[in-house]
Design the sequence.
């Protein structure tokens, strides 16, 4: 049991690191396309690790199944949404940042 | 300060700041998106207060359907806010300050959150709802017991409101009116989205059914399930285009589903009266009476609500999405 | 441990919110709001464990669903106006 606790703590810590660093990236990166990478870190890696960490703490299978469904859902919809956003932004002509240009 | 307080405080701050930013924004698409965000925060606050049924509704309606409908309306009109002349700011601020002040003043009278001697806690009906309902109705989720059985007539009234709103919108914008039809628009060129949506569709519908039938045990019920059904069809309509969706769900069939749910609800009431009880007295449905009959009644009512809500929401979306903008 | 995760989620929400307010433009806002939505899903899941009531994960599923549908709706309905205006 103590092993599970430790493993869960490690997963949660890693997930926490990922979501915060992704959020900082979202704020700090220079343009839309680079920011998509940052949200990828938070939404897939961070959220996934936190949900896995919670999964190791569940005592009932009902909660576990729901966590897995949420995880599956986020893993499928997150990248789809960002893919669409990038595609649509490119089509609408959202400019790409080059070195030396101002941040936008 | 407990963790609970800190979390609540943070969420409330986010809510306030979001409201201020929405008020400042001129681009209405962005404002509509930020209202979805504030809905998410509100729903999270409801979760913290253990009002999970309300949180469910807020998330389904506030984030899902009402965002889609708001954006649909904006697609039909201008998407930038007109500039209000400066001399009209002052009366607006006065009215807002007055209303806000009144609300804050009224809030002084509310009992503290979770306080034991509030009227709600002391009223004898609470005892009935919380304890006796387990014996009489046998539904673990007391909210469902109150909503669908004890106060079924109120719920019928709410359903009539939904029905009336839906009918009004359909009369103005629906298939019977002679608006200009717009050319079919979809997101079919996005292959990934197409595949993902067709994978998600069955899951969404099963989830809606789960919410419908699990309302006795956990958060959920007819209203929420109806909205989730509608969300599924909205997703289908957005991705595959309106023509394809309306081939699956012809507007005529959808239109006849709107009164069907309401009719089922009222019909159940009439049946209970014919069986010798009062209106919506589920005890008469089975000769044995008791929880089994209550279950039957509650389930019928939830299905009836689900049908009408889903049909109304979906047809309102179809009505908005099927029109050409007139500027 | 769970408290720390919750704090991190709230911080992330605030940062995403800042991006949603700063923009610039529609796409940055949608991106930030989408991320905020994922964080509310996590918020619901984690608060269930923090306050010892993990039964409410159904709400998390619903949040994930409506968040996705809202993003799709923004994309398709904003597309439309632009193609109409052109």
Sequence:
């Amino acid at each position: 049991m103590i092993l599970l606790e430790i493993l869960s703590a490690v997963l949660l810590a890693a997930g926490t690191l990922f979501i915060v660093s992704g959020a900082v990236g979202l704020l700090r990166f220079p343009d839309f396309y680079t920011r998509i990478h940052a949200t990828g870190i938070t939404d897939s890696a961070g959220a996934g690790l936190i949900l896995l960490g919670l999964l190791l703490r569940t005592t009932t299978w009902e909660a576990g199944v729901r966590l897995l469904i949420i995880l599956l859902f986020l893993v499928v919809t997150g990248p789809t949404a960002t893919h669409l956003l990038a595609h649509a932004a490119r089509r609408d002509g959202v400019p790409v940042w080059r070195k030396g240009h101002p941040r936008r | 300060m407990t963790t609970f307080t800190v979390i609540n405080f943070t969420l409330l701050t986010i809510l306030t700041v979001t409201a201020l930013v929405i008020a400042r924004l001129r681009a209405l698409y962005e404002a509509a998106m930020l209202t979805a965000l504030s809905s998410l925060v509100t729903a999270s606050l409801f979760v913290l207060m253990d009002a999970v049924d309300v949180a469910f509704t807020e998330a389904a309606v506030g984030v899902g359907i009402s965002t889609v409908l708001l954006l649909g309306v904006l697609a039909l009109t201008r998407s930038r806010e007109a500039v209000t002349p400066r001399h009209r700011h002052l009366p607006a601020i006065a009215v807002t300050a007055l209303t806000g002040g009144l609300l804050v003043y009224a809030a002084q009278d509310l009992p503290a959150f979770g306080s034991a001697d509030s009227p709600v806690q002391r009223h004898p009906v609470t005892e009935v709802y919380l304890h006796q309902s387990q014996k009489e109705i046998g539904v673990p989720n007391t909210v469902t017991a109150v909503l669908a059985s004890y106060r079924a007539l109120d719920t019928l009234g709410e359903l009539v409101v939904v029905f009336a709103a839906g009918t009004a919108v359909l009369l103005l914008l629906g298939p019977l009116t002679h608006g200009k039809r717009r050319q079919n628009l979809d997101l079919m060129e996005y292959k990934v989205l197409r595949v993902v949506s067709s994978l998600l569709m069955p899951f969404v519908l099963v989830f809606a059914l789960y919410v419908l039938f699990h309302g006795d045990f956990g958060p959920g019920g007819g209203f929420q399930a109806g909205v989730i059904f509608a969300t599924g069809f909205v997703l289908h309509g957005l991705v595959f285009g309106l023509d394809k969706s309306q081939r699956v769900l012809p507007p005529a069939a959808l239109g006849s589903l709107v009164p069907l749910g309401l009719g089922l609800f009222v019909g159940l009431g009439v049946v209970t009266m014919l069986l010798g009880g009062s209106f919506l007295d589920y005890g008469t449905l089975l000769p044995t009476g008791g929880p089994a009959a209550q279950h039957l009644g509650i389930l019928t009512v939830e299905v009836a609500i689900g049908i009408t809500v889903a049909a109304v929401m979906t047809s309102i979306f179809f009505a908005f999405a099927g029109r050409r903008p007139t500027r | 441990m769970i408290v720390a995760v919750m704090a991190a989620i709230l911080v992330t929400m605030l940062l995403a919110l800042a991006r949603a307010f700063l923009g610039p433009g529609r796409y940055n806002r949608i991106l930030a709001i989408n991320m905020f939505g994922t964080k509310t899903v996590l918020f619901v899941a984690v608060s269930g464990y923090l306050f010892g009531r993990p039964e409410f994960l159904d709400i998390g599923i619903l949040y994930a669903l409506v968040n996705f549908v809202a993003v799709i709706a923004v994309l398709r309905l904003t597309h439309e106006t632009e193609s109409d205006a052109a």
User: Anything to note?
Assistant: Chain A touches chain C through 47 residues (CB under 8 Å). The two ends of chain A are 49 Å apart (CA to CA). Helices of chain A lie at 2-28, 32-55, 61-91. The first helix of chain A runs from residue 2 to 28.
